[in-house]
Amino acid sequence: MTTILDVPTPAADQAAGVTVSRPRFTATVDRKALLEAANGVAASLPARPVAPVLAGIVLDADGQHLTLSAWDYDLATRDRVRAEVTVPGRLLVHGKLLRDLLKKLDADRVTLAAEGSKLVVHAGLTRYTLQTLPVEDYPPLPATPTGGGWVDAPAMVAAIKRVLVAAARDDTIPMLTGILITGDGKTLTLAGTDRFRLATADLAWTPDDVEAELWTALLPAKALKAVAARWSKAVGDIRLTWQPDAADEVTAEAEARQVLEDLKTRYWDGHPDYIKAQDIANRRTKARLAAERRAGLVGLSFREQHTLTRCLRGEFLRYRSLFPEQNSGAVADTKALLAAVERVGLVANRASPIRMSFEGTTVLVEAGAGDEAQASETVPAAWSGPVPLVTSFNPSFLIDGLKTLGTGFVRFGFTTASKPAVLTGHHHTGDDYDGYRYLMMPLRVPGQAAANPEPEPTGPEQPDSPATDAQQPTEPVASTSTPELA
């Protein structure tokens, strides 16, 4: 609610019969706390707002708190700090300008006060005057969903950072710019892919309803990136809530059911038109049930800091069938292998692969061929395969995967050299998988197949998983380009 004070107008306005209303607002707050809040809220402001008011931050002073909030119809952020509120009120000011001037101030306390249509910022001997924006034109923020659960903040931030590395950077396929979150019992799974690699992270959480059905939420990667940056040092639990966006599916089902009821009065149950309408109604019901398990709006809250984001629409790639139940593996020291790959990778350009030859107790890392610059390095690695294996990877994808593991040891899992390789992190050389998997498609290099005698199959392929996950990869093409996962 906007609080307004009618102030006596100047003589010229009085003579013209004009009444000028001015906002009331006075609050004093700790500068560092206000700057932290302004940083978090301003980070979500759109670079190119579709309306001038969307470049602003709403300041709402009431009781003993000052609340800062912003909303661009897709992403909302809100933060509340303690304040000495002398005059309650609500106004709108340019968000990034407010943040930037708070960075330059060195006073411990800052007083914000409305003077006419301006906001005056007092800090010691410094005084800023900012033009306010029409707060009555600002769109109302949506309500935060209520149902969800709790997840450890450091674990959630770590999972987001590890999965972000595989998310698409461009919006050629919009759904690939998102991170899929799946809630299944007491486990959350985050997944991201750019079609050439895939990263998934499992972590424990405490849902409000342990018996709730599996649900999914496809969140914009940029929103989760901002959350991870904002709460990178948070200690405690994050509240994760969601609500479905099934309005279109509910309407479609109701219309289909109404058509079916109308036909029921005219045709017998076996009539072709009735059977067709019944099939359509059943499919609409199935779509509605699926939509009710798919989030349309997700809220993330840590203490007084809140983020609310709309989910991306569209079906994420099915990915679980890419992970085989059994495979041959090689275990190596993560830091040693990463250092070797980075050294050897200096002679590889974007079109050149990193070649890895696994045999016995070592892996040979090579790059370059012919008249080009060449490099090679041998790293200790325990290879469990029945025969040696030679494969090649995109250098940057391989380096990204090794860097995001964060564990002392890495395991490369293979079925064959031409199938996706799965990197998992381990704190010891034993089987202590920490819930993170990074999958890469190998590059098909001419002449490399001859170096890989086909071993006996080590186990059956995992069957396809539910529609919330991803598709079987196509065979890599005979070139050094990276084949797609699906």
Automatic annotation (TrEMBL):
DNA polymerase III beta sliding clamp C-terminal domain: residues covered: 321-427
Record keywords: Cytoplasm, DNA replication, DNA-binding, DNA-directed DNA polymerase, Nucleotidyltransferase, Transferase
Family according to the record: Belongs to the beta sliding clamp family.
Composition-biased stretches (Polar residues): 468-486
Domain DNA polymerase III beta sliding clamp N-terminal: 28-142
Annotated InterPro entries: DNA_clamp_sf, DNA_polIII_beta, DNA_polIII_beta_C, DNA_polIII_beta_cen, DNA_polIII_beta_N
UniProt organism field: Catenulispora yoronensis
Superkingdom to which the source organism belongs: Bacteria
Broad class of the protein's primary localization: cytoplasm
Subcellular location per the Swiss-Prot or TrEMBL entry: Cytoplasm
Domain DNA polymerase III beta sliding clamp central per the UniProt entry, residue ranges: 155-241
Region (Disordered): 446-486
SUPFAM superfamilies documented for this protein: DNA clamp
Protein name listed in UniProt: DNA polymerase III subunit beta
One Pfam family in the UniProt entry: DNA_pol3_beta_2
